[in-house]
Sequence to fold (174 residues):
Amino acid sequence: MRKFIISGAAGTGKTTLINALVQKNFTAIPEVSRQVITQEQELNSDGFPWLNIEKFTELVYQKSIVHLTNYKKAVFCDRSLIDNIAYLDHQGKAIPNNLQQFPFQEFYHKKVFFAMPWKAIYTTDNQRPEPFEYHLSLSRVLHSTYKKYGFELIEIPFGSVQSRLKFVVDNVCL
Fold:
């Protein structure tokens, strides 16, 4: 089963929406990026998107492959490996071959739910230290990267968690 991706820059309500979908008995792959950042912080290492994007990307890739294998029946995915390509591109870094040649269409549905930057809900924290403007810029790169790889973007409207949940469920064809 191909997974529906919920993507967008940090702080757009993706994980809150994923959690609401899980409460409605949908299966989802959790966000790998935040797991990697937390792990790197605990190890006092440097695999962060704002410090060592290449290391961060490789760690996310490895963990994502494990998740794609372990969560075969998942319906939703909090981000995808396409996000890593956008992060690298946003920082002007080379895209590694494993990402360039990854069979995205085998794992991910062509419809991608895209959460736009939303200043009213954006906050920084230990895993998200960048200012809102950084994520606004990253959002544009994410949007164009998904398009470049042939995905159809469906923008999630701003609103309550329940209205966003209804929007996503209404636009999923299982």
